[in-house]
């Protein structure tokens, strides 16, 4: 329903032609290869994987393509993972039709476009010298380790975390081991329990 509504919204925009709509990441990749669109609007939560991990695959198939993330996720970890992967814009699903159309035009021109809430997060990140705003809990962890611990607390496995940050499984395993050592957890389950007790599950 959301994709149908988004398609209708875009078709009302001036100089925008919708060449396809995909339910899964693999369908999207096939459409990109076939249609070679100027812009791909991509969600994070896909039935067959994480949208962030799809960004470099799309750019490999269509280097000229510009990717706009349109998603419900606006936490620091997701925003920066998408930008590192190569996304040119990032807006949240509560954006109105006018903003969505404006974002598509802006990204198509080669410029970046970000929702106001995302701009605020980026500004805070830069102002803090690159430190995450939510690392007061377990300050012994690096920003990346803290982000991984948050996902662990949410019940995410290593494969999901690797896709989320576009990292290798070996790198994720090393991060998880470092997290456990730094917070004094003898097992992954204990690390998750400590994180949840500290309230990280909802971050």
From TrEMBL:
PROSITE patterns: HTH_LUXR_1 (PS00622), HTH_LUXR_2 (PS50043), RESPONSE_REGULATORY (PS50110). The lineage of its organism: Bacteria, Bacillati, Actinomycetota, Actinomycetes, Micrococcales. This is Response regulator transcription factor. Coiled coil: none annotated. It holds the Pfam family Response_reg. Residues 134-199 form the HTH luxR-type domain. InterPro entries: CheY-like_superfamily, NreC/VraR/RcsB-like_REC, Sig_transdc_resp-reg_C-effctor, Sig_transdc_resp-reg_receiver, Tscrpt_reg_LuxR_C, WalR-like. The keyword NADP does not apply. It comes from Fodinibacter luteus. SMART domains: HTH_LUXR, REC. Residues 1-108 form the Response regulatory domain. The keyword Transmembrane does not apply. Keywords: DNA-binding, Phosphoprotein. The modification 4-aspartylphosphate is found at residue 43.
């Amino acid at each position: 329903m959301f994709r149908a509504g988004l398609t209708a919204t875009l078709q009302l925009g001036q100089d925008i032609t919708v060449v396809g709509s995909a339910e899964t990441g693999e369908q999207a990749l096939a459409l990109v290869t076939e249609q070679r669109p100027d812009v791909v609007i991509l969600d994070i939560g896909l039935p067959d994987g994480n949208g962030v991990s799809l960004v470099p695959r799309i750019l490999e198939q269509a280097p000229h393509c510009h990717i706009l993330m349109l998603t419900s996720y606006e936490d620091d970890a997701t925003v920066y993972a998408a930008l590192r992967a190569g996304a040119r814009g990032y807006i949240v699903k509560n954006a109105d039709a006018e903003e969505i159309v404006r974002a598509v035009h802006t990204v198509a021109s080669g410029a970046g476009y970000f929702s106001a809430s995302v701009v605020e997060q980026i500004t805070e990140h830069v102002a803090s010298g690159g430190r995450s705003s939510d690392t007061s809990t377990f300050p012994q962890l690096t920003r990346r380790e803290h982000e991984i611990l948050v996902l662990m607390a949410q019940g995410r496995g290593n494969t999901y975390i690797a896709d989320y940050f576009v990292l290798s499984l070996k790198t994720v395993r090393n991060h998880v081991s470092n997290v456990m050592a730094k917070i004094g957890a003898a097992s992954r389950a204990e690390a998750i329990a400590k994180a949840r007790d500290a309230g990280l599950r909802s971050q």
